[in-house]
Amino acid sequence: GWNYYFEGAYQWAAAEFAKAAKGFDDKLAEKATYQQGVNEKLAAKPLVAIEKYKEVADRWPRGEMVDDALFELGITYFSLRRWEESNQIFARLIDDHGDSPLVDEALGHYGNTFIALADFDNALDAFNAAIERDAIDPAIRNEITFQKSWMLYLNGEYAEAAPAFLGLFEDEQFVGKADESLFWAAESYYQQ
């Protein structure tokens, strides 16, 4: 399947990974099933990918690919605007696999699912939990801090939003949205 994958023939790669997994229940089958899901998604078949990610999570709940499968499942549900299902999957990943390196990023997506569900209090809680993690990648932390600042602004909490936006503007690692952060900091100060 890998040759097809590297050539961009994802539908064929998915078929080859399915053959590798068929009739087996070992680590190779787990990885092949996960890769089948990845390639089904890349081949624009997200519903088939969902079934493969679910299969990995259900058949190998303690396997080495389960956190990857749950993460991709949450992302895929989110891309299909299935917010509640995405939220539940990210909660499962965070609760059941808290030591996974994917949890930092999952917390950010978890917060975004709450935004999509118009549950702004839980979105802020998820963003705060992500920011408090010492291991979080600075780029992810800054993106989540921006989302949190934006939530504060939307909730009319301008006194808290302004310094948060300004802190991002002053952070040398946060170059992607520095101008936008400065604008929203000024807007927050103006709204006070």
Write up this protein.
Helix 2 (10-21) packs antiparallel against helix 3, helix 9 packs antiparallel against helix 10 and helix 10 (158-170) packs antiparallel against helix 11 (178-191). The longest helix has 17 residues, at 138-154. The chain has helices spanning 2-7, 10-21, 27-42, 46-59, 66-79, 83-96, 103-116, 120-132, 138-154, 158-170, 178-191. By secondary structure, it is mainly alpha-helical. The protein is elongated and about 65 Å long.
Count, helices: 11
- Gyration radius from CA atoms, angstroms: 19 Å
Order of helices and strands: HHHHHHHHHHH
Q: Any low-confidence stretches, pLDDT <50, length ≥5?
A: none
User: Helical amount among residues, as a percent range?
Assistant: over 70%
Distance between the termini: 58 Å
Provide mean pLDDT, rounded: 90
Please report which band the strand proportion falls in: under 5%, 5-15%, 15-25%, 25-35%, 35-45% or over 45%.
under 5%
Which class do the helix and strand fractions yield?
mainly alpha
Question: What does the overall shape look like?
Answer: elongated
Q: Major sheet: size, sense and barrel closure?
A: none
Could you give the count of β-strands? 0
